[in-house]
């Protein structure tokens, strides 16, 4: 195993520790559900206490990993099996070593959601998963690429939360679990896509050449799109610019100073890849 692989597995191990800690510290004591297969394991454990949550997670996930083998290959499967098995074992080990007391519910769902999202996001960046809805979301993303992984996880996990609420007849805890889940998916997307997110700016101006040259001097990429004004029937280029979040205010100010009458349209770009932004990985999972 080379240094890169060792580093990757070290990061995965740390993420598994965070995952287990967030579950045992914030979720389990407050009777919140994580959703997914972990949530299903919580339900089964309630009726059959002899079966630990960690053991049930492993048993429920194995069929899904077998389905994922063909699509993702052995390297992905091995990493994820390691992450799933380690996080599941750690959940049981931490629960045996220490019994965490319930916290104030709102704090528990907020901090638990952040820690769980951080752990899951780190695993995603290392092309691994604890299984359950994370693995299922990658399989679903193959068919609906325009939806982020976090949003797919949210939809799948919410389904389990609804079932959890029905089984335990605890709407309040299910609602808290929903808040924690939203925080988790938000943090997950931030960790996975955070470095590559930005805005897409469309600039329409009579002084487009001056604006272009100033943007280029700031080492920002500019693409000129051919367009015709419907009212004037005259050709006028539209400047297409990928803008980093930290550059948004400065870019707006620049356009306003050079042409107060310019149209400046700013759109959300979930992920920007290429020079100056993120790197495209054909075999990546995010």
What is the structure about, briefly put?
The protein has 286 residues and is of the alpha+beta class.
Task: Characterise the protein shown here.
With 286 residues, this protein is an alpha+beta fold. The chain folds into two domains: 3-195, no CATH class; 198-269, Alpha-Beta Plaits, CATH 3.30.70.120. The chain has helices at residues 3-27, 36-47, 53-97, 105-125, 133-141, 149-168, 171-193, 208-217, 248-258, and strands at residues 198-204, 222-225, 238-243, 263-269. The chain has a four-stranded antiparallel beta sheet with strand order 2-3-1-4, covered by helices on one side. The protein is elongated. The protein starts with a helix and ends in a 17-residue tail after the last strand. The model is unreliable at 282-286 (pLDDT under 50).
